[in-house]
Amino acid sequence: MSKPRWRRPLDPDAGAFKIGGIDTSLGLKTTGGKRERYESLLRKFAGQQAGAAEAIWGALAVGDASAAEREAHSLKGVASTLGATALAEYAANVETAIKTGESVDEALESLSHSLSPW
Fold this sequence. Notes:
Blueprint: H1 24-30, H2 35-49, H3 52-61, H4 65-82, H5 85-100, H6 104-115
Helix pairs in contact: 2-4, 3-4, 3-6, 4-5, 5-6
């Protein structure tokens, strides 16, 4: 038996890869399977969001719960889009905690720890 022949070369960007804590299959869908673009977005996200917990704490410290909630909501959305589902869940917990006024420090602490690898 001969090896199957592909009609066109496989796209090297479409290959699956693993990053701890990130559903790369989900994230790759965002970029139409373009791995290089996805990796670029992840790097940009990491650089921009590394201080998100501190920004939320800062907004709360000056009494701007609305800004803190928006920051958590934005983090949740972008993390979800990129496949960082655990991080998105921590951000969602912070957003809910701010809305309800319950366990905010605890939720922010968890978010801060989850952002440390970023």
